């Protein structure tokens, strides 16, 4: 079933896009991650122009995060105050990211930049996850079923920041500057990579900010909705590269895939899930790295008027 | 039908006028809609000879369909620190978004280089107007890169022997318009070539545009980008909310 995408200006197989969304949705449901870091590279592999892939992926994440965020909201596991600070930072970061994005587009380096940033982030995070998952698995083998107790880390420079505020649901008394900076960093990545950034936000909230675990995922989803929404507006007004048809096709598949993913996850042990996710993340990084280092079939690429 | 009518009228009226090309298209307007997968454009017509004197030798015809001209920057990838990144670039000021030429014979057999260059018959004869301080050899390399990229995207096409001529009077050719074609004002140019010289030409306009839903979305994204962005966010939120209702019930 071929369908013409009005903004990407190309004909795609709608079933392939829906299945792609479904596959990523399955992994999202299974691992509790947004999956933007898979959607964008897969769309680029398929032949969607990188700028359109990044922008439409952000739109798709907005929709995909709603059901999760609502579920956490009903259980009272969203820290709105913390989320608000993160969103404020995220919107600022998105503005900065947009300037970088446009500059790279003008230089003609946006495609390479997106790939390099992906390789670096996926490589580092995949590596860290792999290490963590393997350590846990080995520890479990040795000590039986008892997971090792995790100490809450106290990061001195974050504790030293001025103007502390109380975040009740997060169980924190810290300066809002720390979450503001974290939000800004993720906002930059959302614009350039088309990701929600949950895969950075969640570990950073736990290990850097020391938030109580119950509020982490809900608050992360809360901020993702607003920041990806803002990023959609930025891309729509600046680069005009949001393809609403593409985003909705991805969403249709993603929503269905996520349900199967959640069910599949209940049959697997969390340590093994984390190991599998780490391997998937690393596989995407390696695939992108190969693409960057092998001599391309065509050395010359064309760029239209900007 | 119209062409045949003109042909008959031409044959009957005769006259001392020079040779005239009469052209028609299967569609003067190509609409890009949701199911657009490319189009097949039929270019056909008749040659009206002076006094209706149809020659013995088969005529040579070149049919050129070209799209709107736009500036294109060509960038060359080079290996820097192990990875391939864009380095040098050359800007070409007048690159047709689409260029297809169909001929009765290979282009180099039709006419000499000067004639094919003047009429821009053949991809190598396009005047792409490079704007650069680079050497001729460098510019040539970039031009070849541009042509190769356009060819592989199906946007530059040469089809020798794709024009069929019937009884030395009627001609026709099918031009494949790919799905990735840029929108805008196109033109079909038909040249009648005899003994290496262009003796008659005709031009017919074609409009390729998005229609219906595609046009609506495209115009909204370009002209009312903020409203379009908000609509995109709202659509995504709505889709997510509906999904959450469905999954809660399940």
From TrEMBL, chain A:
Segments traversing the membrane: 12-38, 44-73, 85-104, 110-130, 180-209, 216-238, 244-265, 277-303
Keyword vocabulary terms for this entry: Cell membrane, Membrane, Transmembrane, Transmembrane helix
Localization terms from the record: Cell membrane; Membrane
CC terms in the record's Gene Ontology section: plasma membrane
Pfam family, one: TauE
Membrane topology: Multi-pass membrane protein
Family in the record: Belongs to the 4-toluene sulfonate uptake permease (TSUP) (TC 2.A.102) family.
Protein name: Probable membrane transporter protein
């Amino acid at each position: 079933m071929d369908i013409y995408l009005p903004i990407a200006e190309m004909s795609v197989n709608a079933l392939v896009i829906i299945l792609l969304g479904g596959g990523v949705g399955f992994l999202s449901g299974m691992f509790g991650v947004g999956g933007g870091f898979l959607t964008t590279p897969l769309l680029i592999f398929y032949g969607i122009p990188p700028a359109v892939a990044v922008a439409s992926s952000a739109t798709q994440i907005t929709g995909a995060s709603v059901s999760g965020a609502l579920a956490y909201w009903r259980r009272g596991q969203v820290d709105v105050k913390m989320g608000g600070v993160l969103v404020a930072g995220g919107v600022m970061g998105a503005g900065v990211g947009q300037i970088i994005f446009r500059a790279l587009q003008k230089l003609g380096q946006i495609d390479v930049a997106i790939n390099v940033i992906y390789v670096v982030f996926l490589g580092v995070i995949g590596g860290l996850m792999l290490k963590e998952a393997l350590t846990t698995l080995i520890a479990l083998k040795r000590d039986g079923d008892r997971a090792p107790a995790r100490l809450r880390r106290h990061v001195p420079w974050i504790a030293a920041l001025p103007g502390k505020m109380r975040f009740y649901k997060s169980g924190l008394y810290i300066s809002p500057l720390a979450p503001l900076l974290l939000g800004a960093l993720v906002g930059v990545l959302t614009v350039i990579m088309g990701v929600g950034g949950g895969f950075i936000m969640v570990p950073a909230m736990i290990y850097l900010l020391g938030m109580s675990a119950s509020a982490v995922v809900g608050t992360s989803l809360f901020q993702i909705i607003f920041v990806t929404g803002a990023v959609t507006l930025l891309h729509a007004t600046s680069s005009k590269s949001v393809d609403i048809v593409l985003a909705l096709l991805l969403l249709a598949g993603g929503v269905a895939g996520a349900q199967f993913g959640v069910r599949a996850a209940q049959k697997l042990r969390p340590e093994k899930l984390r190991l599998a996710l780490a391997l998937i993340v690393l596989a995407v990084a390696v695939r992108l790295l190969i693409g960057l280092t092998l001599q391309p079939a065509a050395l010359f690429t064309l760029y239209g008027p900007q | 039908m119209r062409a045949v009518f003109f042909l008959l009228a031409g044959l009957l009226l005769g006259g001392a006028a020079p040779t005239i090309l009469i052209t028609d298209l299967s569609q003067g307007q190509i609409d890009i809609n949701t199911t657009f997968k490319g189009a097949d454009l039929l270019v056909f017509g008749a040659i009206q000879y002076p006094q209706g004197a149809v020659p013995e030798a088969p005529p040579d015809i070149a049919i050129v369909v070209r799209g709107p001209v736009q500036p294109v920057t060509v960038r060359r990838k080079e290996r820097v620190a192990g990875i391939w990144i864009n380095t040098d670039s050359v800007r070409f000021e007048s690159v047709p978004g689409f260029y297809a030429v169909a001929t009765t014979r290979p282009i180099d057999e039709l006419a000499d280089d000067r004639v094919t260059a003047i009429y821009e018959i053949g991809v190598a004869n396009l005047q792409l107007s490079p704007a650069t301080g680079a050497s001729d050899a460098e510019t040539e390399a970039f031009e070849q890169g541009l042509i190769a990229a356009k060819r592989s995207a199906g946007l530059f096409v040469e089809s020798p022997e794709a024009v069929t001529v019937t009884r030395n009077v009627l001609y026709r050719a099918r031009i494949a318009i790919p799905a990735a074609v840029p929108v805008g004002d196109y033109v079909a140019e038909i040249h009648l070539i005899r003994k290496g010289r262009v003796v008659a030409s005709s031009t017919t306009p074609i409009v390729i545009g998005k229609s219906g839903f595609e046009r609506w979305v495209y115009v909204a994204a370009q002209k009312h980008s903020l409203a379009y962005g908000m609509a995109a966010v709202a659509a995504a939120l709505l889709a997510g909310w509906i999904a959450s209702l469905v999954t809660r019930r399940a």
